[in-house]
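agent: user wants the full assembly modeled, not chains individually. Plan: 1) parse entity lines 2) check alphabet per entity 3) run joint structure prediction 4) return tokens. Steps 1-2 passed, two entities, 1896 residues total. Proceeding.
--- entities ---
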Amino acid sequence: MTARKKKAPARKKSARAKAPRTKAPRKKAPRKKAPRKKAPRKKAPRKKKAPGKKAPAKKVARTRPSRRVFSFGNGRADGRASMRDLLGGKGANLAEMSHLGIPVPPGFTISTEVCGECQARGSLSRAVKSDILTALTRVERAIGKRFGNPDDPLLVSVRSGARVSMPGMMDTVLNLGLNDVTVRGLAARADARFAYDSYRRFIQMYGDVVLEVPRELFERCIEAVKEDRRVYLDTDLEAEDWQGIVRRFQEIVEVQTGKPFPQNPAEQLWGAVGAVFRSWGNDRAKAYRKLHDISDDWGTGVNVQAMVFGNMGDDCATGVVFTRNPTNGADHLYGEYLKNAQGEDVVAGVRTPQPIDDASRQGHAGKLPTLAEEMPAAYEELRGLCKRLEKHYREMQDIEFTIESGTLWLLQTRTGKRTPPAQVQVAVDFVRERLISQQEALLRVDASALDQLLHPMLDRSGPLTVLSTGLPASPGAGVGKVVFDAETAENRAKAGDKVILVRSETSPEDIVGMHASQGILTRTGGMTSHAAVVARGMGKCCVVGCEDLQVDPEQRLMRIGETVIREGDWLTLDGGSGEVILGKAPTVLPELGGAFDSLMKWADRYRKLKVRTNADTPQDALVARKFGAEGIGLCRTEHMFFEPARILAVRRMILANDEVEREKALEGLLPMQRSDFEGIFRAMDGLPVTIRLLDPPLHEFLPHEEDEKAELAKELGISLAVLRSKLEGLHEFNPMLGHRGCRLGVSYPEIYVTQVRAITEAACAVAAAGVRVKPEIMIPLVSHEGELERLRAQCEKTIGDVRAAFPGTRVRPAIGTMIEVPRAALTADVIAKHADFFSFGTNDLTQMGYALSRDDVGKFLPDYLEKGILEDDPFVSIDQEGIGQLVEIGAARGRATRPDLKLGVCGEHGGDPKSILFFARVGLDYVSCSPYRVPLARLAAAQAALSP
Amino acid sequence: MTARKKKAPARKKSARAKAPRTKAPRKKAPRKKAPRKKAPRKKAPRKKKAPGKKAPAKKVARTRPSRRVFSFGNGRADGRASMRDLLGGKGANLAEMSHLGIPVPPGFTISTEVCGECQARGSLSRAVKSDILTALTRVERAIGKRFGNPDDPLLVSVRSGARVSMPGMMDTVLNLGLNDVTVRGLAARADARFAYDSYRRFIQMYGDVVLEVPRELFERCIEAVKEDRRVYLDTDLEAEDWQGIVRRFQEIVEVQTGKPFPQNPAEQLWGAVGAVFRSWGNDRAKAYRKLHDISDDWGTGVNVQAMVFGNMGDDCATGVVFTRNPTNGADHLYGEYLKNAQGEDVVAGVRTPQPIDDASRQGHAGKLPTLAEEMPAAYEELRGLCKRLEKHYREMQDIEFTIESGTLWLLQTRTGKRTPPAQVQVAVDFVRERLISQQEALLRVDASALDQLLHPMLDRSGPLTVLSTGLPASPGAGVGKVVFDAETAENRAKAGDKVILVRSETSPEDIVGMHASQGILTRTGGMTSHAAVVARGMGKCCVVGCEDLQVDPEQRLMRIGETVIREGDWLTLDGGSGEVILGKAPTVLPELGGAFDSLMKWADRYRKLKVRTNADTPQDALVARKFGAEGIGLCRTEHMFFEPARILAVRRMILANDEVEREKALEGLLPMQRSDFEGIFRAMDGLPVTIRLLDPPLHEFLPHEEDEKAELAKELGISLAVLRSKLEGLHEFNPMLGHRGCRLGVSYPEIYVTQVRAITEAACAVAAAGVRVKPEIMIPLVSHEGELERLRAQCEKTIGDVRAAFPGTRVRPAIGTMIEVPRAALTADVIAKHADFFSFGTNDLTQMGYALSRDDVGKFLPDYLEKGILEDDPFVSIDQEGIGQLVEIGAARGRATRPDLKLGVCGEHGGDPKSILFFARVGLDYVSCSPYRVPLARLAAAQAALSP
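--- prediction returned ---
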């Protein structure tokens, strides 16, 4: 009845026969080699070459560069897992599984190199077609059926498979090989309903993917038939109904394309292969690649594979299984399946699937029976294969399977996507299971994803209005204003709003909008639906399959039971529990588990770069310390100035007519500043605290609105006209390059004197109370050594004065400077004469060195990224090619003058993993980043130390 | 009667005896050595060491580092001309003249090293005093008089003398050694009136300089006596009058200081020497040094010298002579003298002096008799000595002389200050006279002064209202608004006004105000008065001795005859003719003489750097071409946009709602731009023209005032509200780092396309008419190679389109970029892949690299210069230490990628001689500067090539 049944012994025999041969030479080797590395590719063939017997294997190795079609299945394969660049991930893994003797439907992979060729010439070359036909013959032989055979036709699937998985982005055609003649053979061998349902599915997919017939035409046609027949479900339609639908579909195709639906299976195959290659270039695939930094040049492979059917009856099923829980990394299978269904039905999220076992029930509301219960033998076989694949690949796997009439087939295996917590858990568990080393574990966790892990969770201490519960597809709390389409999500987010994207179901077109959202909520779909997979990859909170939800995008509202929520209303999601909560719920810091602690401990073991934090308050400092910060790298004093209780004193100081008035205003600020610093020093007991003296231009502290000006004039007891003229006097054309930073310290020495006094007094006071205080005074915007020389002398004098008032104190603040002006980096050798430390202000270095005003780039930077002039936003990841040179030069020249010079970085880049790798390479001592990014930075620092 | 008369034979004999010995070994050596260099100092002693006979000479050389007092006169000297760092210019030259056997009153120099010592300890050390007394004994012996001898006292002068002449900045005391007893001896030997006049002068100077008694007290006292005696002139007072004045002066001193006037000549000497040393640190000396880049560390020497008297009768005189005409460089003596006067009377400009010969009459209104007529023998001797000194020093000399009872003494010789035209003339004449080489001549002319030479002169083609004529003290036309004090001059100039400073006479306090003025006019003073000397040094137009002038600073007005001119009224001066002209007279370009042409020819012979000009119009281009520009290095297209006839079209373009509207507005601008370029290409026939595409942010072209906005809204037919919101949309926080330069070209490709089309069409059109056109298209603000790559491709496409419309045209514009963003310099290697040339925009490189917004630095840069944090304004002379590195890096990396890359600079620094030396050193191909600075740049480029 099916290929497999007939050929089962052959498969098993060949699997057994092959297993020892393929496994023996690889037993140790894979342990050492990461599966993606190129090295094994070369070694494996060489080992085979040594025996010198197996001509075909040798030929494979030799001719690979020109080989374009790679067969697999039946216990043998032309390819290998290591060949994913050439075969795509799916093709490489199918080959690898064949080598391992794992039951995969036989087939062949058309290499990624053909993708470019095919796109360039618009069709497949004669040579490729010939290779394909040869490979097809092998499949026919393996499965014992022939393509186009009217009695017992070979049917194939045609699927994409790129180097990196791009779920749902490219096209697929199933059941290819059916036509008006072969469908009758299939009907005779299986049953008529299944045969015509399969045929209509084929026409539908082929029509959509290859012939570009609008999808709705087919769907409307089915709906019409169902209405006509007064049935609700597809499954209620009979064989004759499907037969009728097939006819109507063929008419639709002919009307739309002007040609009848192709009946020649070979023609069908060329069309489908070409369309899948073309789908590499469709818009949603391009958008996905852009978001995931995937090169357009890689191309996709195409896998043509004998069909196996999960929809031939109740002893059939199709499903997806993860070898570990992808949400939390727990060590159990995690999967879903649908009985009597084709694989696409699971992934598409149209029907709600059943859990494969009890452990997979997590989040499944109902009490649907599991695969373990319904098909225990297939389940046990699957379980064994999962463990084997995981051990073989030394990675958690995401496996697609089909059970055709009780026989298990694996259609695909790949590295399983998982949430950041699962990344951590799996990596740490793998170390415990001695599958990988600590170093490998550290390199496997995506540092930038780690950040997600630390973001607030729902605060459950108070009451929450839970409207409904869906499937917890991706954890974390998402709080935002509801929007109903991706474009609105993107626009609102750009405008600074936090949004929750609510959809019936998501599709690949929604990716950018999902990225812009705080969380995603869908009505349909399971844990492996598009929304779930994509959201987990992004580390976004996501709840799927919330069936209580009604979405009305036209009216711009959603309903859950009685509750109506309109666009712009607040909504909260808990991606960990699947709860949908009314309004804007409070959030708290997550409890971090043991695996996280282990990973961080290992990170600290291997990293060389220290990690500090940017914190302006004792609260922030404590959070950061909890996350492992080893000091404060940047404490901005101006934030303290903006507090409502102080701003008037600050303004008095700024608008002072002379030094005397200014000093009087500063005297009022001194105790406040001192107490700020005391709090921070206490929070950072034993750790260094770098405090930056006043940096922004003074006009930033003054009001801009007319009513505020009037109020200020009244408070200061001056006329509005006088205030206005003072404000005008402070106006600057380019404040970034104006009267700010140390220039204020030169113009108004009393400001810096007051700040240094507050710092030193606070330090001496807390030191006297037993706190181990390590203050570091940082002078901003130095561009010429003369500035630092002068201000350092002034600081030292003030410090001396304060120390005299605390006899015997050991407090002796270090004095250093920001390197944030290009000239400072270039003359770091002379500036270092007056500095105990440098802290690179890479934000301003980028602004000045790149001529990019951060406040103004919105007018052109998006366009630059869009047009591909720039690859990255240089404010997100440091521009290593250009601005990076200034950091390198500054570090090298500073150290040349003063080998003990402490070097750090306190720009936003200090929390970006790519940038951290760079900072480690140029030899900085520490990075400083926001509190929540400290663990990420610790991990990235370890990765930097472990990377070659 | 005088020392000289008695000792004359001795002097002469010793002069003769010494001359051969000192001259012989130096005959050739000085030719090679510039007098200010240090090298000769070492060489000279070594040569002396070789013979090894002359113990004293050897001792001088050996012990010099510790020697502090250096004797001279009577044909021998401890010092040398080459020792000016140690002895000051005056002392070194007095020593040199002694060696040459030239008659100088004997004396000694206290070295500049003592200046620092004396300032540090507040008084002279015992060791120095002892050395001084020893040297004084030598003077006594040479002159045959003793210090303090009641019968025939030695009187001395005490004068400052720094490494570089600082005329009038420091203090002088004359006639020192007189007291109540010695005055009687002097009276007995000369005459009583002379003796008591000398004594009162001594008390007056000593009182002022040493005892700090207010000067006016003495002056008022003399006025009172004159009134009492009903006489008008000092010369009408009798011996008894002066005797009375001496008594009153002594009373004034005693009342003011609480002590009697010092009678002990040694005490007088310590006081005077100390005071002269202290005067190095007075405010006006400091201001002068700052203005002239003189280090505060150098210190002054003090010269103590036997007095000779020009005021002992009608066979006495005192004067100043230049060996060439300091105004135009003509080869004749140029000098003035006063009969029966002390030297200070000439310099102070109180009496109008007589010309020394007919050639010196230039500018002297009256027909006063000359020295050649009145004292022919002394004149002839002076003439001979002048030629000898000029040949000896191979430089034009400025000599002070005194004739005492018919005998000539030279008191000082130094390099003569001269106007820029005179610098050129003298240098070129010296080459013709084979005194110096062409190279030396080029190095001698101050390149930055050359600029003065080219500035407009009075246009005499129309009528001028000449109010009066004074002495033509420093040439050029000065046109400005009248002010009556230096402070107002400074303030008005800072506010952007052009001012003419009008004073009865200037004093050193006025220097900063003089610097800020377009010209200086004084009532009193001669060609060597303070105003004249200082103005010539500055290259400022100056008219002195305009006796018709009445100045009333209280009423803020001046009168010449009937005409009343109030502060703020326009006035014009011709410093070449001495004319004072009513109102704002028109000016024209000067005719440049043959000497200038020769010098420029030599400059072109030696220089390697090419010189282009920054010109936006055909008119500017033609001026520059006349001055020798070898192309246009920067033609700014935005200036064309500001023309009233075009600005509306430009605004339409900027405020366009879409590409179509924008293109329509641009179409309107295209023919205007094309005709601009045609004019420029014609003017620059055969020379390259670099045109920069639109650079400034678009909002710069839009109105800022409310009424202008309303008008524009009306013209565009939109509401004011819509216009306002568009203006707001264009607002930028830091326009310097914002949406400008090539970023506009990326955002609105049609703007650059239109410009490139206009350039190429213009080039093709004029080329078809036979003009040799070499257009270079320059893309501004490139920070990333991607920008240039994209825009270059776009330019090439447009050029191709235009060329297709001109079949067979050879026009093929080069395409290059500004290097003005630090990142561009750092990544010049990759940017060079897309550039035919680089032009360094050092203005913006400085703004960004130094974090200095040129529009905002006014708030702190003056303070930085004042406090000495920065030595130079980095916008005037390139910051070689920092920003210069970016130019060096950019040049080296650009050439590494593309060895034939053309490199230029088009910032303001391209016209600054110091910067030009730097640009030559880093290997640029050309500099580009404003038209008037082209000759300056040619000379500076030659100096760069000739400097080691």
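agent: reporting back. The CA atoms of residues 18 and 24 of chain B lie 10 Å apart. The longest strand of chain B covers residues 407-415.
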